[in-house]
Amino acid sequence: MDRRALPLNSANLRRFRTALLSWYDQHGRDLPWRRDRDPYRVWVSEIMLQQTRVVAVLDHYARFMNRFPTVESLAAARETSVLAIWSGLGYYQRARRMHRAAKVIAREQGGNFPRTAEAWAELAGIGRYTAAAIASIAFGEAVAVVDGNVARVVERLLGLPMGREAVWTKAEALLEPERPGDFNQAMMELGATVCTPRAPQCLLCPVHGFCQSRGAEAARPQSPRKRKQLGYVLARKNSAILFVQRPADASLMAGMWELPAVLPSQVKGDGPWARLRHSITDTDYQVSVFAVSPDELHIFETDGRWLTRRQWERMPLTGLTRKVLRRSQLEPKANVAGPSRLLKKSDKQIPRRLEPPRNGKLKDLLRRD
Ligand code: SF4
Predict the structure, then answer these.
(1) Residue 334, in any domain of the structure
(2) Which domain holds residue 197?
(3) 194 close to ligand 1 (CB < 6 Angstrom)
(4) Which of 50, 108, 201, 309 has the fewest Cβ atoms nearer than 10 Å?
(5) How is 79-127 classified by DSSP, letter by letter?
(6) Partners of 274 in the beta sheet?
(7) Which of 160, 182, 210 is a domain's end point?
(8) 219 is a domain residue
C-alpha cells in the first residue's frame, strides 16, 4: 500500500504496527467469534455487529450459533425461524439478507465461502466494510476496514478531519499486510475501548507516540435524540396473549409479530397500566401498556392471533414486544386482565400503575377516532 499517504517513515510505520499489534495481542477482548477464523462464525458476527454493540450481540450470537451451527443449517431454515432467533437485535433486514446469502453459498457454491472481499461483496447484505472484515480475518487478505471506530482513530492519529474515501486510503497505508485480520481488529478495538468518541484515554494508548492529535480535537457535536410515544395493548385469555403481525411491506420489522398498537393520544381516563422506555438508534420511546380483557377487544377491531407462551417463544417477535413480555411476570393461569406486575425495580423512576383497570371502564379509557 502507498506509505506516502502517511506522515510516517518506514521505520516508524513498522513501529506503529508492532505497538498496535502487541497491545491487541495482550489486551484484545476474548470474544467468542475471535477464537478461530472460521468464515461462517466471522461472517455471522460481523453481520450482528453492524450498528450493534458487542454486549448486545454476545447472547444472540451464542443462541444463533447453537441453532444454526453451519451455513447449511442456516440455508435450510425457514425465514421465520431465523427472525425468531434474531429477535431483539433489530435491523431485521440483516437477518433476511444473511439468510438469502446462506442459500447462495450452500446451494450454488457447494458450501464454499468466498475467499476475497470482492467475492464477498457479491452476496446480499455485504457492503465494503463487511466484505473486507471477513476476507481479512477469515482468509488473511490484505485489505483494510473502515467503520466508525477506525475512521475516528485514523483522523485523530493523523490530526486531520477527512472524508470517508481519504480515511480508507490512510487505513490501507497503515495496514500490516502480514497480519491484516488482527491489525483490522486491533484498530477497531482501539477505537471501541481506548480512543472512544468523547473521552479518549490517550495515556493508556499504545500508539500515543505516533498520534498527531492526542485527543486534542473537540468531540464531534452529537445530534439531539428524538422522543416519541408508543402504546400497546396486552390482552390475555387464559394462558394466551393476543399478537398481531406487521404488514409484509412495512419499512421496519416487516412480517414480525407484536402486541396490538394503540395511540397514547387516543387514550382517555385513568392512564396506562404500565410504562417503560425503549431506545432505537437516535430515538427514545416512552411506551405505555394497557391491559385489556378479551370482552373489550372489539374496541381494537383486531384480527390478531392468540398465542400461548410455547408458541410465541418461537415466533419472530419485535424486540420491544419481547421486552414487554420479559418484564411481565406472566403466570400461565392468570386471569384475563393482564399480568400482576409489569416493570422491574430499575424502572421505578417512571410513575406507574400496577393495578389492572376496573371492569367496564376500558371503553371509556380508550377511544378510537
Ligand atoms: S493518543 Fe489518544 S487520540 Fe491518539 S489514537 Fe491514542 S487514544 Fe486516540
Answers:
(1) yes
(2) 3-210
(3) yes
(4) 108
(5) HHHHHHHHTTS--THHHHHHHHHHHIIIIISTTPPP-SHHHHTTSTT--
(6) 289
(7) 210
(8) no
- The reply to whether 184 and 97 lie within a common domain is yes
Closest CA to 347 of 268, 287, 263: 287
Average pLDDT over residues 56-62: 93
Tell whether 198 and 250 lie within a shared domain: no
The reply to whether 14 and 150 lie within a common domain is yes
Ligand 1 atom 4, closest CA: 214
269 and 128, same structural domain?
no
Q: 236 phi and psi, to 5 degrees?
A: -125, 140
Tell me how far the alpha carbon of residue 228 lies from the centroid of ligand 1, in angstroms.
36
Q: Find the helix or strand (DSSP H, E) in which 314 lies.
A: none
Residue in 190, 195, 203, 220 to alter for ligand 1 test, most ligand atoms within 8 A of Cβ: 195
Last residue of a domain, one of 155, 175, 210: 210
Mean pLDDT, range 127-156, rounded to an integer: 96
Considering its fold, how many domains does the chain have in total?
2
Shared domain for 246 and 315, answered yes or no, is: yes
Q: Quick: pLDDT tens for 285-339.
A: 888 888 777 666 666 666 788 888 888 888 888 888 888 888 775 533 333 333 3
Are 56 and 176 in a shared domain?
yes
Under 8 Å between Cβ of 85 and 60: yes
Candidate of 20, 211, 212, 220 to mutate for ligand 1, largest count of ligand atoms within 8 Å of Cβ: 211
Q: What Cα–Cα distance (Å) separates residue 263 from each residue in 6, 246, 289?
A: 55, 16, 11
Taking the centre of ligand 1 as the mean of its atom positions, its distance from the CA of residue 137, in whole angstroms, is 24
